[in-house]
């Protein structure tokens, strides 16, 4: 099976976690896009969604699925999203698609986080995938110096084919930290959150996934944490 077929299989399996009549939090990225396309088939069963990025909101609306402002939502049954890396205990690196801050905010409101990922995302130790950190632009250099002290090599994410900084939906910039071997994800998440100028770090460890649907050639495996 191709990676896309594995992503599609977990996206389809995630429909079992959609709660009828409820608001569903929807993540960002290629796996989340497959999920949106599956959700479109059962859109009449749900009240609506909250999107973790402008790209996701636009794909949801394109399918005629209602998208609510998070400020107008008091409860969310489930948040469904992909990951760049996930461990056997449900800690994740996210933010390859630059939506980490809104993903963390929407996930924090949901009762359950269901991660959907192809099998290549399961790792023993987080950190091979560069860790994304969203920052206030004026703090870029000072945050990069602090991140270097933690042992990684911080690199400013740029727009494809340009030296200009990539700008997020929130007006922030992304620093990708290469070369970290993350043995204590909760401690590192807390440490990076303390750096002044950081908006959010793409470590989802203190509040990781509750369920992971992992696409493998033997079928979809369900890990619960
Ligand atoms: O965190 C994310 C976006 O900010 C994505 O969930 C992550 O990058 C995985 O993406 P994909 O499903 O395309 O592999």
From TrEMBL:
Subunit text: Homodimer.
Protein name: Ribose-5-phosphate isomerase A
CDD domains cross-referenced by the UniProt entry: RPI_A
Pathway: Carbohydrate degradation; pentose phosphate pathway; D-ribose 5-phosphate from D-ribulose 5-phosphate (non-oxidative stage): step 1/1
GO molecular function list: ribose-5-phosphate isomerase activity
Enzyme Commission (EC) number: 5.3.1.6
Family: Belongs to the ribose 5-phosphate isomerase family.
Protein origin, superkingdom: Bacteria
Broadest EC class assigned to this enzyme: isomerase
Entry binding sites for substrate: 28-31, 81-84, 94-97, 121
Keyword Nucleotide-binding listed: no
InterPro entries noted in UniProt: NagB/RpiA_transferase-like, Ribose5P_isomerase_typA_subgr, Ribose5P_isomerase_type_A
Catalytic residues (positions): 103
Keyword annotations from UniProtKB, A to Z: Isomerase
Entries under Pfam families matching the protein: Rib_5-P_isom_A
Function: Catalyzes the reversible conversion of ribose-5-phosphate to ribulose 5-phosphate.
Reaction catalyzed: aldehydo-D-ribose 5-phosphate = D-ribulose 5-phosphate
